[in-house]
Structures are given as C-alpha cells and as structure tokens.
Specification:
The protein has about 300 residues and is of the alpha/beta class. It has 2 domains: about 130 residues, ATPase, nucleotide binding domain (Nucleotidyltransferase, domain 5), CATH 3.30.420; about 160 residues, Nucleotidyltransferase, domain 5 (2-Layer Sandwich), CATH 3.30.420. The protein is built from 10 helices and 12 strands. The strands form 3 sheets. It has a 5-stranded mixed β-sheet with strand order 3-2-1-4-7. Strands 10-9-8-11-12 form a 5-stranded mixed β-sheet, sandwiched between helices. It has a two-stranded antiparallel sheet with strand order 5-6. Strand 2 and strand 3 form a beta hairpin. Helix 3 packs across helix 10, helix 6 packs across helix 7 and helix 7 crosses helix 8. The chain is globular, with a radius of gyration of 20 Å.
Length: about 300
C-alpha cells in the first residue's frame, strides 16, 4: 500500500522523553486530533508504565495494530534494541520493542526521537517539498538528523546526526555545552547579575528557567534577548559546517527557544551566512519547525504506518 493510503487512516505515534510519555492521534495533514500524556514515575521501572500507557492509548484512540515510538536514545534497527540512552539507561538492558509487543499485542516500531522528528517535519511539516533535510532539536539536549532522498540517513553504525557533539571552538567546547536548555539557563544565571536593568533580576538565581528566558525575550528584555542571540550564534557556527560539507537543501530548527520571536533563528541565519560558502548558503533554507513538540510522535507514527506497507 502506498503512502497515499495513509490519508484514510487514523495515525498514532508516541514520544518517550526523560519526564513523560506522550501519544498523539493525527491526520494526513499533520494536525493533531487528540493526545494523551503521562508523567513518568522515575522511582519505578518505566517499561510497565509504558505498557499501561500504550494500552490506554489503544483504548482511547482505537485504530490499527501498529504504533510507532520515538525514544531518547540510539536505536539498533536490526535488533530493535536501544543501544544507548543518556536519560533512561534502563532501556539499554531490555529487548525494548519485543517486550512491549508481548505485553500489548501491538506491532512496535522504534526510532530515535530526532530521527523521528526529522521524518515528521519532512513529510508533514517545515520540510515538506524538500528532497534533503537536516533537522536540529534544541531542548533537554541538542540533537540532529538527516533525511536524504526521502530516507533517514543513520550513518555506518546508526549514530549519524549527533549534532550536540560538534565542537564549536578551538578548545573543543561542544554545541550541547552551550545550546541545550540546561546550559542556556546556566549561562544566563552566571551573567544576569551583570545587567541590573533585566527583568530576570527580580528572580532568585535558582528560579531562572528556560521558559522564563524565552518569555522575557519575547517581551523585549534586552538581556534575555542577548542570551538567546548568543545561543543562535553558537548553533549557526555548527550549522555552517553542515551547509559547507553537504550543500543541504533545507534545515529545520525546533525547540522552545525558537519560539522567542525570530531572535534565535535570525542569529543562526546571520552566523551561518558569515561562515559558509556563499553559493551553498543561498541554496539552503533555514526555517523553524512547524510540528513543534509533536514532531517526534508524528514521525514515529508515520514510520510505523509505512513499515507495514
């Protein structure tokens, strides 16, 4: 069955994050028609909680026998195991997909969260109409993923797209060291007392959060805008290397910090333009995500549905 047959189906995808499970039911346009979320109890094993969540999603959404799950870790696609997970290391010790199938009766497709999000954006989001795409996820960590000729490119051993590991200066500082949410907050806390005019100064240092920085930047706070602008410069430095090496057609940027007007996106574009071969830069579109924080679940749902064709 071709992808066009997906138009008549109810599509469901799940994202597993550090803190929660989220399921979305969506249509062929990428519009979410229903969703379900469950906060993970980290004092107990996550797999039984995920089994209960999948059964609840199946009951709520109905639909077919397949479900896609986006996970925060490296996936070995031949064995369908999670080979490395920073945030939920217990998943490395189990036969993740097989155990879920046995417990739920569902056919399970698993994919790295950034890869799934890239595919979702490529098919139904900001990457639609492109042939090649690089996806950047700015959040708890910094991730990346490539789509070439409509397919996820995983590299020689499945580890392609580790964008957060890219060095951005001569001392070997990595992009994730400055551009993940926790490190943006850390940099802001280290500097905010130097700007007495910032509205962030009303807060205790330990009350500063990424949502507050984004909110204040959107409201015009110069210091908050400066911190996000500098983050965009770091990200743009790393993206310039991708453009120079791969002459990529489209780059999609996602994450909470991208929601702060165009501060981060404009800084990324400005820095990438400075550091790239001009003809390559002119051939590349750098755009914000359209699917937002649903991208991973939507991509996982698409991959699952298409795996049965």
């Amino acid at each position: 069955m071709s992808q066009s047959n997906l138009n008549t189906e109810k599509l469901v995808g799940v994202e597993v994050s550090k803190a929660a499970f989220k399921a979305v039911c969506f249509d062929q346009s990428g519009s979410v028609t229903d969703s379900l979320r469950y906060k993970i109890d980290r004092s107990n094993p996550t797999l039984p909680q995920l089994v209960n969540f999948l059964n609840e999603a199946k009951k709520r959404f109905g639909g077919g026998e397949r479900i896609g799950i986006a996970v925060p870790g490296l996936v070995h696609h031949e064995t369908r195991r999670i080979t490395y997970s920073t945030y939920i290391p217990e998943h490395e010790a189990i036969n993740f997909a097989s155990e879920l199938e046995a417990a739920t009766g569902l056919k399970i497709t698993i994919e790295n969260d950034a890869n799934a999000a890239a595919y979702g954006e490529y098919r139904l989001g900001a990457g639609r109409g492109s042939r090649d795409l690089f996806y950047v996820m700015l959040g708890t960590g910094v991730g990346g993923a490539f789509i070439f000729d409509g397919k996820i490119w995983r590299g020689a051993s499945g580890f392609a797209g580790e964008f957060g590991q890219v060095a951005i200066n001569s001392e070997g500082m990595k992009l994730e060291d400055v551009a993940s949410n926790v490190n943006i907050v850390r940099r802001t806390r280290n500097r905010f007392q130097q700007d007495s005019t910032s509205s962030l100064g009303k807060l205790d240092e330990d009350e500063i959060r990424i949502a507050g920085i984004v909110s204040e930047a959107r409201d015009g706070d110069d210091f908050a805008r400066l911190m996000l602008d500098r983050t965009g410069i770091y990200v743009g430095t790393a993206i310039a290397g991708v453009i120079n090496l791969l002459n990529i057609e489209r780059i999609v940027i996602s994450g909470q910090i991208v929601e702060a007007d165009r501060i981060v996106l404009d800084a990324i574009v400005r820095r990438a333009r400075e550091l790239t071969f001009p003809p390559s830069f002119e051939a590349t579109q750098i755009v914000a995500s359209r699917l937002g924080d649903n991208a991973s679940a939507i991509g996982a749902g698409l991959l699952s549905a298409e795996s049965g064709r």
